[in-house]
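Bump. Still looking for CENP-V/GFA domain-containing protein structure tokens.
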Amino acid sequence: MTNTYSGQCACKAVRITAKGDPVAELHCQCTHCQLRSGTGHSSFIVFAGEDAVTTSGEVRSWSVIADSGNEKHHTFCPRCGTPIHVTSPANPGITAISAVLLDKADRFAPTFVAYASRGLPWDTLDPTLTRFDKAAAG
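Sorry for the wait, here they are.
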């Protein structure tokens, strides 16, 4: 049986569904993840496959050059502003969903922190998680 993850934005105008097993579950402390979340990090559950993640409802996006030097696209709900997911042309078929969107958010089980070198002293995360100074290897 295929695992299915689903969720929605704060105003319920956007729904997201992911099928399959996540390839990663993480916190990211890069500059843009701090800014997009309004706090010290963003939390993601990552899926691989061109059709692994689908959304319904209108989303908008903004693009930046990430700390890695790669372009990345952040999508959000235009009604409530909730961040939906992040993609990058450098990693086609990979979609990082904002973990807080999940209907069953307790399914989120992060295993590492990316860009820990950019972490802010007041943003304390589980000290037992593996930390990478930049993006995770692989």
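DSSP finds one helix and eleven strands in the chain.

Edit: fixed formatting.
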